[in-house]
Amino acid sequence: MREIHDHEELLALCGGDLRCAWAAQGLRPHSTGRSRAWTGAGGRAVVVAAPQLSVHDRLVVHGPADAVAPLVRAVLAEAGPTYRLLGDRALVHALVDMLPELALAADLGWMEDTGPLPAGTPAGKAEWLPGSAEPEVARLVEAGFPASYAKPGVPGVRTWAGVREPDGRLAAVATLAWSAPAAALISGVATRPDARGRGHARDVCTFVLSEALSRHGRAALLVDDSNTAALRLYRSLGMRYRPLAAAYLLPPDSAPPR
């Protein structure tokens, strides 16, 4: 395998894949606490290792399974066992079948957008919230989306956007977290349970998506396949769905023989 030190070379090898661009945050040679990337099989395979990206150490994979499998094995040996694979669902499932040391963690969705927003999309009433609103944001996220990785105070999670009802209560929130210069990640989308069905999620998502596209040019988010309401909302804003899967490295004594 060969380590990639140049961000533009990485994007060329992976065809500009947005997930690779997102994972390659601050790509530097032999850096500590920053992303690293490798290629193998004559440029057919790409693996990007990003520590503590959306809470986990991520290993974003790209390419055909037969080329990616040996590269994954070599990168895990160098980067360490804490990294979780993330990539196209068919690819990750194939890697789990090929490498007995891997286990499937979850199937999920990746949605992305390069803009612009669909014509006629209303601006809504959302805005960036001051830092003093973080305790209120934390309570809303805990009530509306307790499983969210993005919460106030989590590393990589900074400014929150929100929409308030006429009585001043916070109704819905979202943030841009763990974003790369050329790829924003929308996270922490949550609505207060008793305020659902009033268009607040659409307002805040429209706002943060518009901000993401303006600042970064491209935007993405992770979504559960079972969340049909969220999938419908994101698609209505012009976001495109791609099936995704995650996998993790089994402890050495638990990998089944194959």
Key phrases:
about 260 residues, alpha+beta, Aminopeptidase, twelve-stranded mixed sheet, 12 strands, about 30% helix
Question: How would you characterize the overall build of this protein?
Answer:
By secondary structure, the protein is α+β, with helices and mostly antiparallel strands. It has two domains: 2-108 and 244-249; 127-217, Gcn5-related N-acetyltransferase (GNAT) (Aminopeptidase). Helix content is 29%, strand content 30%. The chain is built from seven helices and twelve strands. A twelve-stranded mixed sheet has the order 1-2-3-4-5-12-6-11-10-9-8-7, sandwiched between helices. Strand 2 (36-40) and strand 3 (45-53) form a beta hairpin. Helix 3 (65-79) packs across helix 4 (89-98). The longest helix is centred in the last third of the chain and has 17 residues, at 200-216. This is N-acetyltransferase domain-containing protein. Residues 115-258 form the N-acetyltransferase domain. It holds the Pfam family Acetyltransf_1.
* Rg estimate, integer Å: 19 Å
Mean pLDDT: 94
Largest pleated sheet: 12 strands, mixed
Order of helices and strands: EHHEEEHEHEEHEEEHEHE
Low-confidence stretches: none
Protein name: N-acetyltransferase domain-containing protein
InterPro entries: Acyl_CoA_acyltransferase (IPR016181), GNAT_dom (IPR000182)
Domain N-acetyltransferase: 115-258
Pfam family, one: Acetyltransf_1
Question: What's the short version?
Answer:
The chain has seven helices and twelve strands. It is α+β, with helices and mostly antiparallel strands. It is elongated, with a radius of gyration of 19 Å.
